[in-house]
Each structure stands twice: as C-alpha cells, then as structure tokens.
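A reminder from the course coordinator: this example appears on the midterm review sheet, so study it carefully.

Given structure:
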C-alpha cells in the first residue's frame, strides 16, 4: 500500500481516492469531452448550502491535482453564480463542495473555480451558458456548487469539467469523475485521482472534492 511519507500509518490521498472508485453510486441519472485557457471574472464568494463538509485530503508536499484536457466545449466568460440549476431542468440534483488548497495544505481564498458540463441527456449548450458558471472560493478556500448529475456523452464516462486558478497564478484545467460508473474502466482519460466522494441525500446526490494547486 502507498503510504503518506509524513505518517507511515496513513494511506495517501491517491490510495483513498482509488478505494472510493470501487464503491457503488446510487440514484445517478444518465457527459462530454474535455489546454488551459485563462478565465477572467469579478470576485464573489459562494453562498452557503447544506452539503457535505469537505474532508481534508491534503498532506504536506501532496501532489497537485492532475490536469486533464479541456476538450472542445469550453466557453469563456461564464456567469458568476453558485447554482447551475434552472427551472424545469431534468436530472438528479447534485451539490458539490470542497476546498482549493496549496501543496502545503493551506487554503487558497479567492481562487477562481469555473465549471461546465453536459445536461441530463448528454448535450452541451454551446450557444449560451446553460450548465456553465464560475465562482470564487471564500476565506477558507471553500466552494459550493448546485448542479445536476451530468448525463452520458458519447464515448465518455460521466464527468464534470473544471478550471481552477489561484490568484495571479496559472490555470489548472481538469475533470471530475463519479465512482462506480461502468464506463470508468473504458474511458481513455479517466483518472482515479479525480474521483468525487459521493453519497445519496434523499433523491439528490452530495459530492466533495479538494483541489490541490501549486503556488
């Protein structure tokens, strides 16, 4: 087993996330291709929401969150908002929360976090900003997003695209994945280090993920 160098008795973050990959996910509905284009916007903090408390998955000198391809569907200048849910939108509701941390485990306030994804039917809005939005982490480095579980885009497993940018730093472009998905094994760019921690909450889903960025 891969162990934390600072604490030999504690599994590393990578091992913890790989273990999560084996867990089934309940109640998911049936997302898209995923560079590092810069993102610019005005500052704001996420609104509070009833979500899982992010579990610290960072140890000193932890590896930064892996980057992944942006894909063809990124649109710059997305709206500043913490909810992507619109009236009448189909799909299982998903509350996603977490932290942006440095490799020394320090929170990184005012980090830009930009999300985009396909809808419940696996379709991206490339004409507008449906299921697209950005926000800034609060003083604790925390973000909260209300959205839906993405559908299945042809040839890919279920995922959400993200760009993370610490103040005055470069952009991390990556994707987040769902544990227990049958297509994870066949997806050519799936990375178990990018698995969300997901649990059912009534008819909805709650998920957490902490981004680790190099300052």
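Designed residues:
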């Amino acid at each position: 087993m891969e162990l934390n160098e600072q604490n030999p008795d504690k599994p590393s973050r990578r091992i913890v996330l790989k273990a999560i990959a084996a867990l089934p996910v309940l109640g998911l509905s049936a997302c898209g291709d995923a560079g590092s284009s810069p993102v610019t916007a005005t500052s704001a903090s996420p609104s509070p929401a009833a979500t899982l408390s992010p579990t610290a998955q960072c140890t000193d000198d932890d590896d930064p969150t892996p980057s992944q391809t942006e894909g063809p569907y990124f649109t710059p200048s997305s709206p500043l908002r913490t909810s992507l849910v619109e009236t009448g939108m189909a799909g299982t509701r998903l509350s996603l929360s977490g932290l942006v941390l440095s490799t020394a485990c320090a929170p990184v306030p005012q980090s830009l976090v930009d999300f985009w994804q396909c809808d419940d039917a696996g379709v991206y809005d490339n004409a507008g900003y449906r299921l697209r939005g950005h926000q800034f982490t609060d003083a604790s480095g925390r973000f909260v997003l209300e959205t839906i579980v993405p559908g299945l885009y042809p040839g890919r497993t279920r995922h959400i695209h993200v760009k993370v940018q610490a103040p005055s730093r470069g952009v991390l472009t990556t994707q987040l994945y769902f544990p227990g998905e049958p297509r994870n094994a066949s997806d050519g760019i799936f990375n178990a280090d990018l698995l969300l921690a997901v649990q059912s909450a009534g008819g909805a889903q709650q998920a957490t993920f902490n981004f680790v960025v190099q300052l």
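The first strand starts at residue 93 and ends at 102. Confidence is low (pLDDT under 50) at residues 1-50.
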